[in-house]
Design a protein that fits this description.
Distance between the termini: 65 Å
CATH architecture: 3 Solenoid
Number of helices: 4
Shape: globular
CATH class: Mainly Beta
Number of domains: 1
Length: 538
Amino acid sequence: MRMGNNRLLLMRVLMRALLAGVASLLLCGAAQAKGKTVYVHLLDGDDARGDGNYTRPFKSWRVALRHVGSGDTIIAKNGDYRKAGREGSWGGLSLALTMADQLEAGDPRQTVPQGTPPDAIGIYRYDPANPLTIRAETKQGVVIDHVRFHLARGIVIEGFDIFPNPYYTDEAGKKLNRRCDGIHGDSVYEPEDTYNHVKTNDPPGGHTAAWYDRALWTSYITVRNSKVHYACPPGGCTPGYDPLQDDDRLYLIKFNQAHHITVEDCELFDGKNFQRKPAIDLPCSDDVVVRRNLIRNCHRGVVSKGGGRRVLIEANVFVDNSGAAFSGGSTDPDLFIDGRFGDPCSFAFFESYDMTARDNLVVSTRPGERPVESVSIWAAKNASIVNNTFIGIGERGVLLVRPGNEVDSPAKECGRSVRLTRTEDLTLRSNIFILSGVVDETMLYQTSGVGTAVLRFDHRDNTFFQSGHDVPVGGLADPNRESGFSKSDPQLAGGQGAGSPAGQPGWGAWTDYATWMAAAKLKSNSSSLGRGVRGAGK
């Protein structure tokens, strides 16, 4: 009996050891699946003697990138990398090399398919399901000038303070970094000195087939928890400085010819510029998500154009921007791609397809600087504007529908017009508009441009509050006659909009994403429950 008990005890011990071993193997496997971590510090690192650990980080992005792959992480130790100067591109992170570049030992390599030019194959391409993560040691603890993607894939950028400065000069006074975007991603194969001059419908010889291959494009890129904002000019942001006269600035974020792009939980600000470029520009970009960002003091907010498909603009806060919060745009016809190699007429019929803007808060707090219009649609197919809240807007209406590509200049060997005049299946539903300064002659729903047509406009269940005054009639449609129309005070927690009469709560005191969204919450007695931003204040 005692021998049987001993055997049973021995079996239990062996079983526990076996289970512990299995658990250890599983933990090791999980650790391996998470990948390794490599450290970099552009000021205090050492590429020659460093090994990429915390105490001996690498000094350059390029060397750090030689030691990682899919699922790995590069952590940038805290510091102001702009101090790396011109030689270090002021800290700029470039993921732009291709198989046509002069690669060095250790640089990643990709297979070049037969018949594909090597400059169509980027080297920084990782598994979208197991991306490479490049992040700051602490949130916004690393300051860099810019991030550049070219034919890159499967990368997460997290926690940086991105501070593009287009005013750097050399000893002779020549500008070195002019018109630098904060984040720029593209899939255009051309020399830097001819950038933005290539003709999409008549591309360089030998590149045509690859041009239309979306599998090669910049794709599966995520930017999160970062700040992106322009520096002041050398003379400072003085009262006499007008950013709308500054032609050195362009975009805070731009992705051109890209797909599966996500920008989330970021703060974008001080992006106004002479050319009225938006904070986020998305020409020819598909499957894009822009969510939970605070975008302030820019011109337009987010622009989908050039035939872009499936762009979701969700739960963002737009404050004191001088243009539309979300819109399309007019694109040069030579940048229109519809994916048919060999077809000179393969440009898009609409500037944007399937664009959705929902649960966004748009606020204007500065009298005289309110947006021209809150929503601007340029030749869109299936655009949906639902459950958004707009504060202090309406002087020039709330919706403007425009034609796309107003210059009729077809590509070579294509006879059809490229002037895009139709918008189809437009939805404007369950929004709250707190109007400010609207006059009787203002039409809230408007069109502009010769021949502009809107087919199937679904507008209903919207609230238009103008301090108890009547809402203007006329225009593309009369809001007063739409189903579910309301002009009652929606009872927002933050009060009645910017520039409100004395004694009413203002909106200028709110400072960050969370407080703005909390202010947009509806009171329990609101007659507009179910409209405007949903989940505000959570």
